[in-house]
């Protein structure tokens, strides 16, 4: 697989770094509020995240009780492009388009994680992930053959009525044995936004489930490897015709 080139018009719509964690048993939602004080200047907008649970009580008249409790906080940056979620089960940092570079994204995520870690004192990290969502806008001046742009596409039987797909969703889950992780590729046709173009979502998600100590710096080295593999997967998923769309 090739490593990704630098594209002037990269199709990345969202980049995500995500950790699942185990917090101390006595940790409460209120302690998450201290994070707001640390990052409020850069992330001034916040909202409370709720976790919903449903309890089904059987009987002659079965009843369903819904319960909601505070599970975390979501913060949005001044420019509306950066978001941080801090919850009782993890930490997520995301960057919406336009995306600058992995180095900047990685560095900022690490600083925000340090704040989360200092306040929440997680016992360990149980899952680490890197995810990049791409939107590829293809001109439809004539009939589009998906395999002219993507190297992995739905294979429609020739016995079925042929024509341009109006919708599709495809998911592949591929173990990456050398990295001891799982690759998930989602492809889907997005709703049309720009006349004359069809938009394909190419969503690349890589994760590993294992136990790391929360102060283990090797997690960040591992994320670097996931990012490199993401680049390779992206390049392996597109054609030269697609690459020209990003130049």
UniProtKB/TrEMBL annotation:
<dbReference type="InterPro" id="IPR026349">
    <property type="entry name" value="CHP04255"/>
</dbReference>
<protein>
    <submittedName>
        <fullName>TIGR04255 family protein</fullName>
    </submittedName>
</protein>
């Amino acid at each position: 697989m090739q490593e990704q080139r630098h594209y002037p018009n990269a199709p990345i719509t969202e980049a995500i770094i995500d950790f699942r964690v185990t917090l101390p048993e006595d940790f409460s939602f209120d302690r998450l509020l201290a994070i707001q004080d640390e990052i409020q200047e850069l992330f001034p907008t916040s909202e409370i995240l709720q976790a919903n649970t449903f309890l089904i009580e059987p009987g002659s008249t079965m009843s369903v009780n819904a319960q909601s409790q505070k599970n975390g906080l979501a913060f949005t940056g001044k420019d509306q492009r950066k978001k941080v979620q801090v919850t009782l089960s993890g930490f997520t940092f995301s960057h919406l388009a336009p995306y600058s570079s992995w180095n900047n994204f990685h560095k900022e995520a690490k600083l925000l994680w340090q704040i989360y870690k200092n306040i929440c004192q997680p016992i360990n990290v149980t899952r680490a992930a890197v995810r990049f969502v791409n939107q590829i806008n293809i001109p439809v001046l004539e009939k589009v053959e998906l395999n002219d742009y993507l190297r992995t596409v739905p294979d429609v039987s020739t016995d079925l009525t042929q024509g341009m797909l109006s919708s599709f969703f495809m998911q592949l889950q591929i173990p990456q044995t050398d990295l001891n992780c799982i690759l998930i590729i989602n492809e889907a046709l997005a709703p049309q936004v720009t006349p004359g173009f069809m938009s394909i979502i190419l969503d690349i998600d890589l994760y590993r489930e294992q136990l790391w100590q929360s102060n283990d710096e090797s997690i960040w080295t591992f994320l670097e490897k996931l990012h490199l593999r993401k680049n390779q997967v992206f390049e392996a998923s597109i054609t030269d015709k697609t690459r020209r769309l990003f130049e």
